Amino acid sequence: MKSSLIISVFIIGTLIVIVSCKKPDEVKVEEPKVYTLLQNDLARSMKKASLVMRRLSRAVKNNDWVEMDMWTQELKEGIGFSCVTQYMIENNDISLRFIMLSNQFNSAINKLMLASKNHYSERADLEFSNLVYSCDACHDSFNKDAEGRLDFSDAGEE
């Protein structure tokens, strides 16, 4: 008797829960809002990347392999991941040209890292030039507010 009472209470409870639940077509699901630290930080990241590029320029000029390795790593994280990701978040329509220029940047930075690890001065100079070219090409295409060529010399602001 006691077990049949427990079973009937369980069945009644289950039926009450089923009946009280809304039907799937009545449930309104709102689009979740995703907040990320990457949004609205593109300008700050690019300013930091510009500073790192000037420091990398100085390291390449002086064949400072330790500094070159450090700044290429920082730049790869700063522009290669952070800035590109931020640009993609802020702009829903990403063109094939942007992806190609991003790949060109990553290729140049990887080759520069390899040249610095092997202490190849001429190769480091060439790859740094390719890196600057990839930055200029991307800014020409996507940063309409930029004025002229990017200046990563020591004369730039720090």
From TrEMBL:
InterPro entries noted in UniProt: Cyt_c/b562 (IPR010980)
Entry protein name: Cytochrome c
Molecular function GO labels: electron transfer activity; heme binding; iron ion binding
Organism per entry: Candidatus Scalindua brodae
Lineage: Bacteria, Pseudomonadati, Planctomycetota, Candidatus Brocadiia, Candidatus Brocadiales
Top-rank taxon, per record: Bacteria
SUPFAM superfamilies reported in the protein's UniProt record: Cytochromes
A biological process from GO: electron transport chain
